Amino acid sequence: MPKFHTVMIDEERRRTLRIIGAAGMTGLAGCTGGGGNNESSGNGEGDNPNAISWWNIDVQGTAKEAAAKLESMFEEQTGIQVEQTKYENTPYKPAVSNALGTDDAPDLFYIWPGPNRLGRYVRNGNVIPLDGALSKEQKNAQIPDAIRGAQYKKDEILSWRDNSGEMYSIPYDLAGIPIWYNKNVLSEAGVDPERLKHATDITWSEFLDICSKLSNAGYTAIECGNRNSWTIGHWVSAFMIKAAGVDHYYNAAFGLEGASLTDEPFQTALSRLKQLYDNGYFNQDINSLNNNEAAALFFSGQAGFWSQGTWVSEVISSQAPDDFAGIPDVMDYMWWPAFPDVYENSENERMSVVPNSTVAISSQAAKRGDEHLTKVKKFASFFGSLDAQKAFFEITGSPVTRTDVYDEVDMSPSQQTTTATVGQLQSADEVGMVFDVAFLPETTEALLSGGQELFTGTSPSKVLQNVQKTNQDALSNL
Q1: What is the 3-state secondary structure (H, E, C) of the chain?
Q2: Residue 111 forms beta bridges with which residues?
Q3: Going by CATH, does the domain composed of 179-350+435-476 fall within 3.40.718.10?
Q4: Confidence (pLDDT) at 143
Q5: What is the pLDDT of residue 47?
Q6: First-to-last CA distance in the chain?
Q7: Measured at the alpha carbon of residue 13, what is the angle toward residues 10 and 15, in degrees to the nearest 5?
Q8: CA distance to 215, 386, 452, per residue, from 319 (Å)
Q9: Mind listing the pLDDT tens digit for each residue in 55-81?
Q10: Could you give the CA distance from residue 330 to residue 244 in angstroms, rounded to a whole number?
Q11: Is CATH 3.40.1190.20 what the domain over 6-176+352-433 is classified as, yes or no?
Q12: Which residues pair with 334 in a beta bridge?
């Protein structure tokens, strides 16, 4: 089982960070969505003042289908109406930030955990604690680490995962974040796909060799749509963890043990990422494509690798050709290449987020009357129910946070594949969270920008110097 880390920010604050969970499971979390228009059925309090307003990013494929199903199930069970407002992933984040604390704030909204997401709203007083929203039965059925991932001390952004904190959101799904490969493309390039199946021991040199074979065979080795910016965050997070280890990764992020984001292992991580691009293994229009466009190219057999979390079925359902055989017939996953020449335990540490998706209640909802707030809390509790999580898993194939769901479902080969990541995360020595979740908001934005600049001529050292300065300033302001 992955170990917990108790990390002290400094002696004055004495804040405990529970960074790694015993289950170690999760996106960049829930990072579906690419181009396209927002979809809306009410804003803020909604067109119907008696309805619950729910904001989410379920704009396409099975995710959209699942959201509609959950809404109808809840309305049938309770008679309470729900109005959804939907955004693509990238515009969703500023939309929520701008709305919270105003009359336009939704009652209940999708949010990722961690200091950069839910944590900032806890600090700003934009969400209310949800202790009591889950029944004892619901809590007992949840993966414990999912519960911890929703806990904070009031107003403290760095108290994420504190066992003494209050619960600020309801977890409902989780995700491993591996690299997916197209079996047909690899085979045609002379690479045995079985060697990669769920592999944790593909070294950097072996990965480079595979990329070279793909390129020589006329394929793009790695397809990535970084116009969204969060997509390269998968690669940056994974390479930093593989080069430095989870402990060093978090120590640098939170200014502990003298660690810095400019340390040599992080320089190596970004240099190797840039090497993939300079060698032509990444698509050279990486900053021009969005995630959906890159996914469609991967599904159509133009590339060997593509990164996505275990919500991948949602993207397949909306972006793959109708005749695409899917998981595991055409595509399967491997874990990120290990860097044993840089960090000796690289093979045994993985990357994820726990939980991947949660729903939180805005503080504005609490101002809309006790009767209204009671309805909103019922909807929040509904997300933790067996019926809701079972329906979500059956439709999307994305692993959920209630373990008893898996006993209730006759899993398809695709679902068996995506849930296989859960066991591998549990067996890892340590699991680190993607920086888009775990780092401070300012640091995250600097890294996301740096991830794009890396492919436009900015050196890894310059990117990391800028990120480190931003991080120091953000930490000093806490």
Answers
A1: CCCCCEEECCCCCCCEEECCCCCCCCCCCCCCCCCCCCEECCCCCCCCCCCEEEEECCCCHHHHHHHHHHHHHHHHHHCCCEEEEECCHHHHHHHHHHHCCCCCCCCEEEECCCCCCHHHHHHCCCECCCCCCCCHHHHHHECHHHHHCCEECCCCHHHCCCCCCEECCEEEEEEECCEEEEHHHHHHCCCCHHHHCCCCCCEHHHHHHHHHHHHHCCCEEECCCHHHCHHHHHHHHHHHHHHHCHHHHHHHHCCCCCCCCCCHHHHHHHHHHHHHHHCCCECCCCCCCCHHHHHHHHHCCCEEEEECCCCHHHHHHHHCCCCCCCCCCCEEEECCCECCCCCCCHHHEEEEEEEEEEEEEECCHHHCCHHHHHHHHHHHHHCCCHHHHHHHHHHHCCCECECCHHHHCCCCHHHHHHHHHHHHHHCCCEEEECHHHHCCHHHHHHHHHHHHHCCCCCCHHHHHHHHHHHHHHHHHCC
A2: 358
A3: no
A4: 87
A5: 63
A6: 32
A7: 85
A8: 24, 29, 24
A9: 999 998 899 999 999 999 999 999 999
A10: 33
A11: no
A12: 179
Strand partners, 109: 55, 360
Q: Which residue has the tokens 């595991």?
A: 328
The 10s digit of each residue's pLDDT in 110-155 is 999 999 889 999 999 999 999 889 999 999 999 888 998 899 998 8
Low-confidence ranges of the chain (pLDDT < 70): 1-47
Q: Where in the chain is the domain with CATH 3.40.190.10?
A: 6-176+352-433, 179-350+435-476
